[in-house]
């Protein structure tokens, strides 16, 4: 679904989550890394993205003559005894504030990365697109 949304220009990019101790990558960033020929892996190899808590890396990508916008949020060290989505709860509000600073329209959140409640105020206020 996310591939189609990006290709059809329904969304211009995504808010992604990356943890320091997740190698290989997991979640939506892993799917997009595969889809876009290792874009995020290259940024990690050069340490532009580390997954450190509080990190926010804007990682645009020119693809088929269109700029796709990605904001990668570092989640720090994930407690592997907790489910990945549960770990994202604490980070979502912080991540959305960083997203607001970016001011890119038509960005989306993925349920693969973020635990999103249907009535969550922060999400409803921004009229965000939510993809699977």
| CATH architectural label | 3-Layer(aba) Sandwich
Strand proportion: 15-25%
Using the CA coordinates, give the radius of gyration.
Answer: 14 Å
Number of helices: 5
Number of structural domains: 1
Pattern of helices and strands: HEHHEEEHEHE
What is the CATH T-level topology? Answer: Leucine Aminopeptidase, subunit E, domain 1
CATH class category: Alpha Beta
Average pLDDT reading: 88
The helix content, as a percent range, equals 25-40%
Euclidean distance between termini CA atoms: 7 Å
By CATH, the superfamily comes out as Leucine Aminopeptidase, subunit E, domain 1
Principal-axes geometry comes out as globular
Entry summary:
Helices cover 35% and strands 21% of the residues. With 132 residues, it is of the alpha/beta class. β5, α5 (121-126) and β6 form a beta-alpha-beta unit.
What would you note in describing this structure?
The chain is 35% helix and 21% strand. It is globular and about 40 Å long. By secondary structure, the chain is an alpha/beta fold. Helix 5 links the parallel strand 5 (107-110) and strand 6. It has a single domain, classed as Leucine Aminopeptidase, subunit E, domain 1. The model has no long low-confidence stretch (mean pLDDT 88). It has helices at 2-7, 28-35, 39-45, 84-102, 121-126; strands spanning 13-18, 56-58, 61-63, 66-74, 107-110, 129-131. It contains five helices and six strands. Strands 1, 2, 3, 4, 5 and 6 form a six-stranded mixed β-sheet that branches.
């Amino acid at each position: 679904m996310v591939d189609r949304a990006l290709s059809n220009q329904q969304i211009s990019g995504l808010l992604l989550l990356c943890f320091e101790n997740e190698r290989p990558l997991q979640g939506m960033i892993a799917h997009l890394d595969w889809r876009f020929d290792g874009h995020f892996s290259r940024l990690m190899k050069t340490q532009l993205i580390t997954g450190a808590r509080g990190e926010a890396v804007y990682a645009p990508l020119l693809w088929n003559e269109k700029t796709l916008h990605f904001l990668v949020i570092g989640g720090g060290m994930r407690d592997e005894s907790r489910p990945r989505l549960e770990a994202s709860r604490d980070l979502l509000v912080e991540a959305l504030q960083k997203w607001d600073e970016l001011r890119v329209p038509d960005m989306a959140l993925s349920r693969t990365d973020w635990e999103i409640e249907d009535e969550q105020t922060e999400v409803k206020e921004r009229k965000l697109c939510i993809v699977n």
